[in-house]
Predict the 3D structure of the following.
Amino acid sequence: MLRRLIVGGLAAVLISIAAMGGQGALAHSRPVSFSPAPGAVLDAAPANVEGWFTSDIKRADESFIRVMDASGARVDAGQTSLSPDRRQMGVGLAGGLGPGRYLVHWSTHDDADGEVFAGCHVFFVGQAAADAAVSGGMALDGGADCPAAGHAEGTTAASIEISIPAVVDGSAATLTIMPSGFTPRAPTGSGRDPLFGHYHVYLDKVPLDVLGDDHEDEEASHEDEMAETPMAGHDVDTDDSSREGGLVENPAMWFEDEFKFTNLSPGRHTVSVAVFYDDHTPFSPPVVASKTFSVETDGDDGVPLWGLIVGVAAAVVVGGIGGRLLGARA
């Protein structure tokens, strides 16, 4: 009993101190308390998890409470509720949860300044699970397993790198995509969970639907178009000459780590990859990567003017967005 009080009480005091310190310096929405409290040891699993915060929370996809078991599987009901004063969030838990360590991942989208702030903590069901955590030196803040670990305030941790041969001998090339901070998957059609996304692959086309300043009017029609377009599949590597560059659509939706272009014409090409949410809207801030490569054949020693134009335009757009993002973070 003493150890239970120490583990739960100490963690609760620490988070309260942190919350009060945040209130003195920032106007952003910060946690005041949780139930169960961080580090709490319970005899049985609770019916729900709740959190109270310092300021109004926006009703948005970025405002949530999620609960995961030791394997990383979600055990919450999936629908976060928000109180009428918008300073309390709660989520129900699945029934029949047994003893173990449970991770609470929370995120708030502040209504006043638009900041997204997130964090994690743990609670235990059963003294044995708590004892194992203490003896193993496991941190009670859950930071090591927190999906929000490494997030800068108001940004996303998602990023991608892409790789393609700089010089391609022939008409086919394989693009490799390396994601970080999210899990690629086929889009579900709804929701904007920042932990999951899919790709749009562009060939010789600037992704203005992601990076452009004036694409808002096209957003609804673009979303409908993407929802009705079949997911590009493995048949992109066929020899169908009607598919320029192996693309059924440009951009093509994709969620695997390799994409094969075919029927590439000689000259310079630019490939861009952007990450989109399940509802087919782009990640915010944009997550985009671009590479330029050349396709060479015997006797080919020229670079088409249109290839240079596309490459320069992509660099200007990406550079402009990057500059604004860096300026906003400064």
Summary: The chain has a mean pLDDT of 74. Residues 159-329 form a domain with the Immunoglobulin-like fold (CATH 2.60.40.10). Residues 305-329 form the longest helix (25 residues).
